[in-house]
Every structure is written in structure tokens, then in C-alpha cells.
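DM from R.C. (forwarded with permission)

"hey, sorry to bug you on a friday — could you get me a structure for this? deadline for the figure draft is monday and I only need the backbone to look sensible"
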Amino acid sequence: MKRLCRSFVLFLILFSVVTFMFWNYSVPTVAVDREAEHEDKITRFLVLGCDHSKRLTDSILLVAVNETRKEARILQIPRDTYAEYTEGSYKKLNGAMQTLGQEGLKRFLSEALGVRIDYFVTLKLDFFKALVNAIGGVELEIPHDMEYSDPAQELKISLKAGKTHLDGDMAEQFVRYRSGYVNADLGRLDAQKLFLSAFAKQCQTLTLSQLLRVTVLALTGVQTDIGLPAAIRTVGILRACDTGNIPMATLAGQPIQGQSGAWYYVINRAGASRMIEEYLMCGKGKASISFDPRGVFDRVENESFHKIYEAEKLPVQT
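My reply, with the result:
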């Protein structure tokens, strides 16, 4: 019983932690091409983390699990990513779930990225905080003081640099902080990776009662289209993976300020194609052919956006 429960919770932890370190659009269904994946069986999950208002997604991640080789990888998509998912004026990807719904966003990204996405997992903000408290908190080194306030988002951040034991509220502050980073959301994504590592370390010490508590929390904090057979199968695969050493990267691109003054993250076609092939475990050459067939990540009329999208090699971010 203890082993089965631990396996199930590891499955939940993978989706809940990587998510938050943190309905009206029709999209064609993407054809499944098993031959392109050779003989490996790949299952991919779209993981979404919602803010308090449930209108925007604070985190957008893709988790690929190779059931044949017992491997898992994670690809982050910045929330400020420019994407033509609507005719409206707001075209940051973090608004897509409100417009398309969870299933619609899954279909949209499947076509745009050129890969099959099998399931979605959506988590509420309060679930993340409760999850951290349920495991007894997380200890990590805060690199610098973090101070920020945004009453509209019910967000107040006040953390001091140094080794700190974070409870649920403090953990939310740490993973949502972005104003003090040079590259805003990119800096926050790096912080989320740091949190994920510390969280995984803490999970290795969980007792059976803590594991059961997390399982109960998941029943009210997670929305997903994963059926029980697929969930059980994935749990078995993740149990064989090194969950503390899962490769994680951010989809290639570059932040840029638009004409309105708002900041966007523009995907780079060449770099993203290579990363999708590697991190989402596609058949070699497949992603570079089918990535963004409708140009939804490009904005041709904006020369600065288009230059980033078409660049063969982007400058190194510092």
C-alpha cells in the first residue's frame, strides 16, 4: 500500500510542482504519427497553472514521458509568448485558456508545435500552497531580497535573501516573483527550476500520512482529462524515472517590447523546432517540418518580431 501510494503521489507531484513554479475557438485535430516516434511510446501532457482570478495561466509546461525508455522531460513556454490564438487584441499565450478552454488550448498547441499532446492537467493556485504545506514546506537558498506588491492580483511578496524554509504562502511568493529579474519571466522560470529541485528533495522524506494528505488534496485541486488506466500506467513509468533529475528547458525565443509598450516573448522557429524534437521526444526531423504550419507565433507586420522568429541563431541571453 505504501509503495502504491508513493508512486501515485510522485505522479501528482510531477504535474503540480512543475506547473506553478508558478472556449470558443476551433482548431484542427493533429494527426497521430506513431511512425515518426519510431518504436518508443511517448505520452505528452500540457500542464497549466491558473492565477487567483482563474483568467490567466501563470505557467504553461509540456511534460513528455517516454514509456519505453523510462524517461521524462519538461519544456516551459513563457506566459508572455506571442500567439495568434484569437482575433482579439490580447495575444499573449497566458490568456489562451480563457478563450479556448483547456481542451481547445491543448489542440491549438498540438497543431502549432507540430506534436501530439495527449492530456491536459490544470491546477489551482490554492492547491499549490496547500501542497507545499502538506509536505512540511521546502528549504532553499533565496538568491536575493524579493519585494513586490500588486493588490489587483492579491499578491504581496516580501522575502529576504538566504537559506529559508518556505511554507505554502512563502513558496507562492518565491515562484511568482518576477519584477526584480532582468528578463522578468525568464528569471522567474529559472527560479521555478530551483524550487522544483528543492521540492523533489523534500518529497524524498515524506511519510505515509503526508502522502495520503497530498492525494486527498489532488482530488479538489486538479482538473484533467487523464483516465485512470493512463494515470496508473504513467505512474509506473515515473516510478522508474529519476524524478529528481528530469531535463527541463524554456522554449527558444527572446523577450521584446511591442509598440504598445507591453512585453512579449517571441518564439524562434529554428531553435524551438530543435528543442521540441529533443524535449518532447519527436522523431528526428519531424518537428522542424511541422512546427508552426500557420505561423501563429510570428507577426510578419512587425519587423522586430519577425526578425526574432526567423533568426537562424539568437544572441545569448545574459
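R.C.: lifesaver. The chain has ten helices and twelve strands.
me: no worries. The longest strand covers residues 57-66.
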